[in-house]
Write a structure and sequence with these properties.
Elements lengths: L9 H5 L1 H11 L4 H5 L5 E4 L14 E15 L6 E8 L4 E7 L13 E11 L2 E5 L2 E4 L8 H6 L4 E4 L8 H12 L11 H7 L4 H9 L4 H32 L11 H9 L6 H14 L6 E6 L5 H14 L3 E5 L3 H15 L16 E5 L5 H13 L2 E6 L13 E7 L6 H8 L9 E6 L5 H7 L4 E5 L9 E7 L4 H16 L3 E5 L31 H10 L7 E4 L5 H12 L9 E4 L12 E6 L7 H8 L9 E7 L6 H11 L3 H11 L2 H4 L5 H4 L11 H17 L7 H12 L10
Parallel strand pairs: 4-6, 9-14, 9-15, 10-12, 10-13, 11-12, 13-14, 16-21, 17-19, 17-20, 18-19, 20-21
Antiparallel strand pairs: 1-8, 2-3, 2-5, 3-4, 5-6, 5-7
Length: 736
Amino acid sequence: MSPSFLRTSLTSLLGGKTASVLTKALGLTTVEDLLRHYPRRYAERAELTPLSTLVDGERVTVLAEIRKVTVRPMRQRRGTILEAVVTDGTDVMSLTFFNQKWREHDFTVGRRGLFAGQVSTFRGVRQLAHPEFKLFPDGVEDDAQAVAAFAGALIPIYPAAGAITTWQIQSAVGVLLDQLPELPDPLPDDVLARLGMCSLTDALRLVHRPSSRADADRAIERLRFEEAFTLQVVLALRRAEVMALPATRRVPATSPLLTAFDARLPFTLTEGQRAVAETIEHDLGNSHPMHRLLQGDVGSGKTVVALRAMLLVVDAGGQAALLAPTEVLAAQHYRSITGLLGPLAGRGQLGGAEVATRVALLTGSQRSAQRRRELLEIVSGEAGIVVGTHALIQENVDFHDLALVVVDEQHRFGVEQRAALAAKARDGSRPHVLVMTATPIPRTVAMTVFGDVDVSTLTELPAGRVPVTTHVVVRQEHPAHVARAWQRVREEAAQGHRVFVVCPRIADDDAAHEDTPDLEVPDEDAPAVEMAGVVPLARQLSDGELAGLRVGVLHGRMSADDKEDVMRRFADAGNADGIDVLVSTTVIEVGVDVGQATMMVIMDADRFGISQLHQLRGRVGRAGLPGLCLLVTSAEPGSPARRRLEAVASTTDGFALSALDLELRREGDVLGSMQSGLRSSLRLLEVSRHEDVILAARAAALEVVGADPGLAEHPALADAVAVLRSDEHAEFLEKA
């Protein structure tokens, strides 16, 4: 970009007062900040904004015509009220001014203008109290400056704030445009020519001062592509950097451990699992580190694919580490892996297979003696597979030869945490990295967020998986259905099955807690219903609806030993101390695998997002038994929350639900795993709508970086990339 102009402070060009307001109200400090503050829409001089769409509490700018003006004295105190009724030709609203009778001379019937303020309702009529306004001149001779400001066919309407109006922003932008020089363009000339796009300088002029819709569309198209292109160049550079890192080839001449494991598998791998396994094996044979994302719907068999990769590197003489976000999930992975391996996990032990390894478990709450034993097995190489939580990252954890890092639910970890584990490889080489997610990622998000990573997708479900049946249970509409839900829980328990009951919080005095950081904000029109808590609900069920059943609790504030004990008792309810019904927070959301769990009741389900609900219900119906999930809610019919729940109940296709989630939620929410560096750079690009733009930008970026990896021939692009990457939050890809 142009340091001499675009990075100039607003103070030097607009004056301290205006610049201060723009900074405080909108966070804009430089010329580029303001020029990149694009209009959110355009109004036409002949167009009257629909007033019927306004909502109380919303800050709006409306274009309307004055129909009637009255001035009357106040009833309770001295002074006057000026009320102007304005119309869009269909509906009306009121503009109210206190003690400003003199405005009656300006507010003449038939005059049009822009009016900005917060919508409220008084005596059944929408109103703006003391709005900011800009009246259009009655004739050219009245105010030549105002005519020039609004002479265009389109009027830009900017995202504004209480301290500054859209026309004040427009005025400030105009000052900059009048001084705008020809700017260096981050888009290469050949890309501009091939796509028929205008220059950056023209685009900034046209987006703020369009003479037609075509002008505005042309500018927005170019600026949107620039956002996608710059991001894709960053991703392409990241990919090139990873490819340049050294790594040890980890494909053995023979694979006795993997061969023995495949022979003892009680099921046949799906075609998808075999294909992904072959791809991973190829990656492990490269001299640069694998950097692959493995995504798959709930129950698609990602863990088995990852375990086969871990066994492959063990056969090659290396070690594999599986990083899990919670102790519950780490313990679950440890049990699953040792269970699948059987004697193959008993190296040097009585009953261990001739060809075997050891599996170590490392968590933060282990007793000192056990921790010392595990650390010794890890550093000596006795443990070929290491499962753990953040404890694996600590400085005193040393590996004999870390070859592969598998990260489960990668979005739960920060960049620094994953980098710290990767740094434990020896001799300066980098370990291969496989990150897994059970939250299906729409294609556009995958290209935008994971553009520097190879993505593998498992779409098939293993044989024997029965789709989970899901129903929405509405308290106020069908109270009897709630009673029937608890009766159904009893029926499942009577058959020896297990039941999860999930709550959004732990106790009555919790607004939220560490187990459920991503609770949905309730709809404004939703009824006030107290959220269910694990502890009080478990007590209520034990004493009432589920009296006689063994009800347990699980949440994040329990000690690791208590969590492990609860999960053991729940998984093995046949014992005298077993648990039939587990009342839990979302600590069981991912990875927890209890084969006999067939039913889940999610209380206040409207407080969870679509993806989270899909993950939760994936905990049942995992062993060939039919699964049932009941979504208990008080959400009103037709509300956004109710529509989310009905969408989850309508399909078990996680990829379809992820696409719907992307469509329903705000862009910033969907991209929440990315930090501010990316979110602030995407002003016009919406990953839910602009797949064609992302595809075109990706192709162009790969071509440019492939021909000029250092961007030496593209200094303006290099400058734009440096700005994006130098942001202190520019590690927006929650992976490394």
